[in-house]
């Protein structure tokens, strides 16, 4: 099938590469000319495991191509994906300007019937707006053409985006009527061989399904972070509690890891957008408000522990930081907890010496060159001369470090672990002061022997 994808970001590029892999002929359109040019030279704008070889393979095979020419894009595809950003507006609601701009572009250049598929995460009612915008432009052009608007939200996770798209758990398809069903089945048939993953519904339900999924996952995390904070005060260990509750199949082990707060381009923005949508309807979404408030506070957990530990002595100290990206296997720094940590430490006059396997270039792009930030090439180099180590992201390579080396390199054997990677007793036995999340006994002990 001929497919056009508007927007070559995380979602658009991965979706396009995966569709090309199964044999669809995919043309990607983006307004970012540099991005398009780079892709044609084999320079991939994001780090995502497995993506580069797939893009290279299908650019070479001719199944995947890139352009800034919107008219050519509209002409190419029977289906037109909208996969552009929906960033938060000033008040936190989703900014739909890019989605509606693509709708306008499609309508301006349409010469034959098209199915327009919205992949971006958009508030309920957006498909109506896309449909109305296309109808309005076609009317102004004095052209009569059939078109369908479909809501087909994306559920990929960064860091596992290619495999998530190759093997989706479900494919949500929201339509106004049955007309686009066959075409949607044909488009996704290669992903549907094992069992039927397509779930058809009306467009509004499809749009809400995306927000409900992200908000449910964010709720699980904030709930666990709240339990972690309670465990700390009660002298319990959240890691034991996590395993204890996860063993109930009704709860399950997924997405109940406490930590230094959720980040990324989706959970913070989508929870906020659903709160705004609710408020616009005069409804107060109390659970969502709490999920957001708990997370905002949780991001200050590590900086507060560091500040508490060093007290007035923090200014002028260098803190080693392992992990900058909002989660492992990505270079994405959007809403990363590491940013709150670094910014709070800088405000307190401390310096940061950081290492991340993929996100250092992005960190440099965001913060530029500054005296209080040193980015180093290895996790070991980050430790040299630092007063303590903070871990914000659970990259595999941080999970079994050489503790003797850490102790030798740090000025003080102190670790602040935002991802509960280590066994507290083992670290204590090695002479470390170990702060983690929700590990009551450990935190209490650590707090009682603050060392400078
Ligand atoms: N990142 C994720 O993990 C993820 C997962 C599921 C859903 N989503 C949703 O998918 C959407 C896209 O997210 P993303 O992370 O891929 O965004 P992104 O910012 O990485 O990429 C968006 C791309 O769209 C391009 N663009 C903007 N206006 C355009 C236009 N008029 N025509 C063509 N291209 C245009 C931009 O130049 C950019 O390359 C958002 O709604 C997001 O919430 C994201
Ligand atoms: O038990 C957990 C699981 C995750 N996180 C944090 O939650 C954030 C988001 O993680 P994850 O969901 O793995 O990454 P995303 O790439 O943001 O993916 C989410 O957001 C996407 C965009 O909407 C959706 O498509 C995905 O289904 C949804 O998982 C990260 O900061 C994680 O560290 C936790 O703190 N505890």
TrEMBL record:
<comment type="pathway">
    <text>Nucleotide-sugar biosynthesis; UDP-alpha-D-glucuronate biosynthesis; UDP-alpha-D-glucuronate from UDP-alpha-D-glucose: step 1/1.</text>
</comment>
<keyword id="KW-0560">Oxidoreductase</keyword>
<dbReference type="InterPro" id="IPR014026">
    <property type="entry name" value="UDP-Glc/GDP-Man_DH_dimer"/>
</dbReference>
<dbReference type="Pfam" id="PF00984">
    <property type="entry name" value="UDPG_MGDP_dh"/>
</dbReference>
<dbReference type="InterPro" id="IPR036291">
    <property type="entry name" value="NAD(P)-bd_dom_sf"/>
</dbReference>
<dbReference type="Pfam" id="PF03721">
    <property type="entry name" value="UDPG_MGDP_dh_N"/>
</dbReference>
<dbReference type="InterPro" id="IPR001732">
    <property type="entry name" value="UDP-Glc/GDP-Man_DH_N"/>
</dbReference>
<keyword id="KW-0520">NAD</keyword>
<dbReference type="Pfam" id="PF03720">
    <property type="entry name" value="UDPG_MGDP_dh_C"/>
</dbReference>
<dbReference type="InterPro" id="IPR028357">
    <property type="entry name" value="UDPglc_DH_bac"/>
</dbReference>
<dbReference type="InterPro" id="IPR014027">
    <property type="entry name" value="UDP-Glc/GDP-Man_DH_C"/>
</dbReference>
<dbReference type="InterPro" id="IPR008927">
    <property type="entry name" value="6-PGluconate_DH-like_C_sf"/>
</dbReference>
<feature type="domain" description="UDP-glucose/GDP-mannose dehydrogenase C-terminal">
    <location>
        <begin position="320"/>
        <end position="424"/>
    </location>
</feature>
<dbReference type="InterPro" id="IPR036220">
    <property type="entry name" value="UDP-Glc/GDP-Man_DH_C_sf"/>
</dbReference>
<dbReference type="InterPro" id="IPR017476">
    <property type="entry name" value="UDP-Glc/GDP-Man"/>
</dbReference>
<protein>
    <recommendedName>
        <fullName>UDP-glucose 6-dehydrogenase</fullName>
        <ecNumber>1.1.1.22</ecNumber>
    </recommendedName>
</protein>
<comment type="similarity">
    <text>Belongs to the UDP-glucose/GDP-mannose dehydrogenase family.</text>
</comment>
């Amino acid at each position: 099938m001929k497919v056009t994808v508007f927007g070559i970001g995380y979602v658009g590029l991965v979706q396009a590469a995966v569709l090309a892999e199964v044999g669809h002929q995919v043309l990607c359109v983006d307004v970012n000319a540099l991005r398009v040019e780079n892709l044609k030279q084999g320079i991939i704008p994001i780090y995502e495991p497995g993506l580069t070889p797939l893009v290279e393979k299908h650019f070479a095979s001719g199944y995947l191509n890139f352009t800034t020419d919107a008219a050519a894009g509209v002409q190419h595809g029977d289906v037109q994906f909208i996969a552009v950003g929906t960033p938060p507006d000033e008040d936190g609601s989703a900014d739909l300007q890019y989605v509606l701009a693509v709708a306008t572009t499609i309508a301006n250049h349409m010469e034959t019937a098209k199915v327009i598929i919205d992949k971006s995460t958009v508030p309920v009612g957006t498909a109506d707006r896309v449909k109305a915008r296309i109808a309005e432009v076609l009317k102004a052009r004095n052209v009569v053409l059939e078109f369908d608007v479909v809501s087909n939200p994306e559920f990929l996770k960064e860091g596992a985006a290619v495999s998530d798209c190759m093997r989706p758990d479900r494919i949500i398809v929201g339509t106004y009527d049955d007309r686009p069903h066959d075409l949607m089945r044909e488009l996704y048939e290669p992903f549907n061989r094992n069992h039927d993953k397509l779930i058809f519904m009306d467009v509004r339900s499809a749009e809400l399904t995306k927000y409900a999924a992200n908000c449910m996952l964010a709720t699980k995390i904030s709930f666990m972070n709240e339990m972690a904070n309670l465990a700390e005060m009660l002298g319990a260990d959240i890691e034991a509690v996590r395993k204890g509750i996860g063993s109930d199949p009704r709860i399950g082990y997924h997405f109940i890891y406490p930590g230094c707060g959720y980040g990324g381009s989706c959970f913070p923005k989508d929870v906020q957008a659903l709160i705004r949508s609710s408020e616009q309807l005069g409804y107060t979404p109390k659970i969502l408000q709490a999920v957001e408030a708990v997370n905002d506070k949780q991001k200050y957990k590590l900086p507060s522990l560091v500040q508490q530990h060093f007290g007035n002595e923090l200014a002028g100290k260098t803190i080693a930081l392992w992990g900058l990206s909002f989660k492992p296997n990505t270079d994405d720094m959007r809403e990363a907890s590491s940013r709150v940590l670094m910014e709070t430490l800088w405000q307190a006059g401390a310096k940061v010496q950081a290492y991340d396997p993929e996100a250092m270039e992005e960190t440099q792009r965001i913060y530029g060159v500054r005296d209080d930030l040193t980015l180093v090439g290895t996790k070991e180099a980050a430790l040299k001369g630092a007063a303590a180590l903070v871990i914000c992201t659970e990259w595999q390579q941080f999970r079994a470090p050489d503790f003797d080396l850490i102790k030798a390199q740090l000025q003080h054997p102190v670790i602040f672990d935002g991802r509960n990677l280590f066994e507290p007793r083992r670290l204590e036995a090695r002479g470390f002061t170990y702060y983690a999340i929700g590990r009551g006994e450990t935190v209490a002990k650590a707090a009682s022997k603050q060392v400078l």
